[in-house]
Amino acid sequence: KSLRKAIIAGNWKMNKTRPEAKELLEAIKPLVANAEGKIEVIACVPFTNLETAINTTAGSNVKVGAENVHFEKSGAFTGEISADMLTELGVEYVVIGHSERRQYFGETDETVNKRTLAALEAGLKPIVCVGELKWERQCNITEEVIARQIKLDLWDVTAEQVKNVVIAYEPVWAIGTGLTATPDQAQEVCAFIRAQLAKKYDQATADAVTIQYGGSMNAGNAAELLAQPDIDGGLIGGASLKAADFNTIVQAAV
Ligand code: PEP
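^ Those are the sequences you sent over. The predicted structure of the assembly is below.
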């Protein structure tokens, strides 16, 4: 675990206007300042908030991420945003393949893979989300689902590149539901993901990849989840919208 950087990332989803974004980040900054040099703290915000977030966090240890990126460099893709557009703003991270994108916007492992490759090529660090549906867990095929996602989502990603990839294990049944995977359940799958990475690359490479848990992580359950040997951080939805709660999770990782 000491080989890896702990990363706590907020995923704001479709929340916050620019003034609200500024207010939340101004509240978060001083709270998490002590995490500097110890863990990475990221706010993944809607596209319209990126510039505000970058200006507001300048000079602080809070980094900024986007919530999606398109895979083509430019062209006739109405409504999409390219990786170069993000890097030009100063964005460092990007969430790719969030379950809400997969569920509501037709995201597939193929497009997740294309977005991941495009992000890496542009110098963005992708936070690639994987996770099983409730019925897949009930049918006892969680490992099959995860193995398939890791294989397809990281297709053609080299060992050198994967060091800049963060994997977020987000069981779909735990996202925004208040249902959290138990620390044991989350650890089991995060360890399985690392084993898949070791198989695809090698153990040293797998040991260097940050794997987050996400799914109703909050101020009350974060410490226990983050104490697990293969859980290197969290991707936080609801609880990232309150500075105090987000900070409690950050402090649990410091
Ligand atoms: C998420 O959106 O990635 C997430 C984990 O949401 P929540 O924390 O609200 O379950």
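The domain at 7-253 is CATH 3.20.20.70 (TIM Barrel). The beta strands are 7-11, 40-44, 62-66, 93-96, 125-130, 166-169, 211-214, 233-236.

Shout if you want it in another format.
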